[in-house]
């Protein structure tokens, strides 16, 4: 299994081999080691402050691949990793392999979080993870280009389509052959499930499976939403968007080659960094709606959990407490634009000075639409896999939007009959 875990030696210098008597060696599974991965820095600070040795391992950028890795590690009761960064939809799926943090956290470490996120991370009375940052999908737009062409920020998906097409063609006519109208996460992975949920729910087509566990996907609104998305490919979106994850979409937008982008809040600080082509040229807004629907943002975010197979659960939990504490979340918000999971930070002057839009996102985050992970439980990975594969088939033109929705309805119904 170790060949899946890439060493972070290039990121951090190893601590001395001789450790203090009470020191422990803790291994933490961070993000993908990219520019937005704050985990290695914070984990090292904790280790140096507490006299421990921390090993950093990077994990796949794809949430789908990351989950597969965790399932292999935990399923084999591996002690290779003590602390894991887990997606908001995984607590119920991984709960049997995670410790109850209530029994290991320092006193008060679980106080002051957004209640809904703590509820999400509590499974059968066990607190299996602490929220690190939360997310909701956003529309990024080039306000300099909208001003240039006297266009408004689109409030509907059709308006986005029309505006993106007009500006893309005008820019290409002016010599910018690399300009695209809209980029998003179109690869067949969890990210496409989040995008598809936003499209379909904003059209009034539901959330694939409702709160009662009923499959609701087969409806005209869902078909209409997917049909519009499929029409973007090769028009306002490049063919390659079908292999984009978050960072690929960001790369195109940040290079100045897209008018609009769907992505998470972390992109703001990276795009505004000194020297970037779009610094000071873009803004964010709620995602568009369908013709009769409303703006819908898929709720996202990541949390910290401790493996039940860790040799040092108390020390691992102390690292979790440190990562999610107010001071570290404040730094995460200021330096990377990550949405805090502590309400008090949405009113913090330093956070708002660095990223004014974070304060405006509070309601968006509070009203974000969750994926149907709680109701489908351990079946959620199969549910999501069916969603992103059928939607990807439609985006690729392999099947029609109607066929994609009908096949998805059949697959989800079959999974549901086996029991959520």
Automatic annotation (TrEMBL):
Q: Which domain of life is it from?
A: Bacteria
Name the SUPFAM superfamilies on file. Answer: Periplasmic binding protein-like II (SSF53850)
Q: Supply one GO molecular-function term.
A: maltose binding
State the GO CC annotations. ATP-binding cassette (ABC) transporter complex, substrate-binding subunit-containing
* Extent of the signal sequence: 1-23
The biological process GO terms on file are:
maltodextrin transmembrane transport; maltose transport
* Pfam families in alphabetical order: SBP_bac_1
Alphabetically ordered keywords of this record: Signal, Transport
For this protein, the record's Gene3D superfamilies field holds: Periplasmic binding protein-like II
User: Which protein family is named in the record?
Assistant: Belongs to the bacterial solute-binding protein 1 family.
Protein known as: ABC transporter substrate-binding protein
The scientific name of the source species is Halomonas qinghailakensis
| Phylogenetic lineage | Bacteria, Pseudomonadati, Pseudomonadota, Gammaproteobacteria, Oceanospirillales
């Amino acid at each position: 299994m170790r060949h899946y875990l890439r060493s972070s030696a290039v990121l951090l210098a190893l601590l001395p081999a001789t450790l203090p008597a009470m020191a422990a060696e803790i291994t933490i599974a961070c993000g993908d080691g990219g520019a937005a991965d704050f985990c290695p820095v914070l984990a090292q600070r904790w280790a140096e402050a507490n006299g421990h040795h921390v090993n950093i391992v990077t994990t796949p950028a794809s949430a789908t691949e990351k989950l597969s890795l965790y399932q292999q590690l935990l399923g084999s009761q591996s002690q290779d990793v003590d602390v894991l960064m887990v997606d908001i939809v995984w607590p119920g799926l991984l709960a049997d392999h995670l410790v109850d943090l209530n029994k290991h956290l320092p006193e008060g470490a679980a106080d002051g979080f957004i209640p809904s996120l703590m509820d999400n991370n509590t499974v059968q009375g066990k607190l299996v993870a602490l929220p690190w940052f939360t997310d909701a999908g956003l529309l990024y737009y080039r306000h300099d280009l909208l001003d240039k062409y006297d266009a408004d920020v689109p409030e509907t998906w059709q308006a986005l389509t029309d505006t993106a097409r007009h500006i893309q063609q005008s820019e290409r006519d002016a010599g910018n052959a690399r300009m695209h109208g809209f980029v998003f996460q179109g690869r067949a992975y969890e990210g496409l499930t989040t995008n598809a949920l936003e499209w379909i729910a904003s059209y009034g087509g539901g959330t694939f499976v409702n709160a009662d566990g009923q499959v609701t996907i087969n409806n005209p609104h869902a078909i209409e939403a997917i049909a519009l998305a499929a029409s973007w490919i090769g028009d306002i979106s490049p063919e390659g968007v079908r292999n984009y994850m978050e960072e690929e979409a960001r790369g195109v937008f940040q290079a100045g080659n897209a008018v609009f982008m769907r992505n998470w809040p972390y992109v703001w600080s990276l795009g505004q960094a000194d020297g970037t082509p779009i610094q000071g040229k873009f803004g964010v807004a709620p995602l568009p709606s369908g013709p009769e629907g409303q703006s819908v943002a898929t709720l996202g975010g990541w949390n910290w959990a401790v493996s039940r197979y860790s040799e040092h659960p108390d020390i691992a939990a102390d690292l979790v407490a440190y990562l999610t504490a107010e001071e570290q979340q404040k730094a995460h918000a200021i330096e990377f634009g990550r949405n805090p999971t502590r309400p008090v930070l949405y009113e913090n002057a330093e956070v708002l000075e660095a990223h004014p839009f974070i304060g405006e996102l509070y309601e968006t985050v509070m009203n974000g639409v969750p994926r149907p992970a709680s109701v489908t439980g351990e079946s959620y990975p199969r549910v999501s896999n069916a969603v992103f594969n059928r939607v990807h088939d439609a985006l690729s033109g392999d099947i029609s939007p109607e066929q994609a929705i009908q096949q998805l309805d059949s697959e989800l119904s079959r999974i549901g009959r086996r029991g959520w």
